[in-house]
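User: Predict structure, ligand magnesium ion.
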Amino acid sequence: MANSEFEYVRKFEEWDALAPSNWIVVRIDGRGFSKFSKRQNFAKPNDRRAIDLMNAAAIEVVKQFTDIVIAYGQSDEYSFVLHEDCQLFERRAAKLATSISTAFSVEYCMQWDAYFPGQVLDRPYPTFDGRCVLYPKKRILRDYLSWRQADCHVNNLYNTTFWNMVKGNPATHTSPMTPTDAELALKGTFSADKNEILFKRFNINYNAEDEIWKKGSVVYRKFEDKQTDTTAAQQFIKPTDDQARKKPQSRTQMEKEKKRKQKARVVVEHVDIIKDKFWLENPWILD
Ligand code: DGT
Ligand code: MG
Ligand code: MG
Ligand code: MG
Ligand code: MG
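Assistant: Predicted complex:
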């Protein structure tokens, strides 16, 4: 059957390998979450159970795919960063995007009960689309992550102000507004205006809001022994010169590196990844 008359149809398939030496970001995003969050009565503007579930799913995905070096999530989206040298699925875009987004979707549904006990998850079940984006330089990859984190902050400030205006505050004689009126009132306002509205009308100091809402969630591997980690990172990932970078890892080295990653603890933190501090403290993440 090997050479059947039908086999020519294979030629219609496209080879979609992503260009080498580029950082790959697989961004997944919940399908129709505006509707889904309403149907499941998510708290407004932020539901802790929902974000904890997103993070739990992301942790499992990071554990499953050792090529993922860091992930960043907010709202109904997560960005998974695969190392520039990643060879998983021969870097085929559709394989990477679908494998990661389906793994995430399954985790999200399977862990639903743990975060929404007694709340029925019914059809249409939540699913996440996925896309691959390439970034040729670490600098640009960092700008990408900064863009998502800045987006998180801007949206959170807006949503926090908006939902407080809709709710109103009797203590300051602030009457509840309709969503349309609140939207109109916020049109064209700057961050400073929203901070002031929150402070004066709602007695909320935005800076004191939980970091999880302002910064989103960063998922990465923490190695028990930092010393060992740095040594291992230098030995297996970090090339000492250009020559070393071009030399591919041996199979044994790759296996050892994979095991080391599988043993590492995967953590979620709500920290700034725009400034240099985080990257200086964790230099091996993008090494
Ligand atoms: P899409 O992605 O094109 O299929 O459409 P959506 O509806 O998923 O839109 P998107 O991804 O731009 O926006 C995410 C929606 O999810 C947005 O309407 C707010 C909602 N959402 C996410 N997290 C929370 C939450 O914690 N609480 C509430 N109430 N809503 C949330
Ligand atoms: Mg969307
Ligand atoms: Mg969505
Ligand atoms: Mg979204
Ligand atoms: Mg197969």
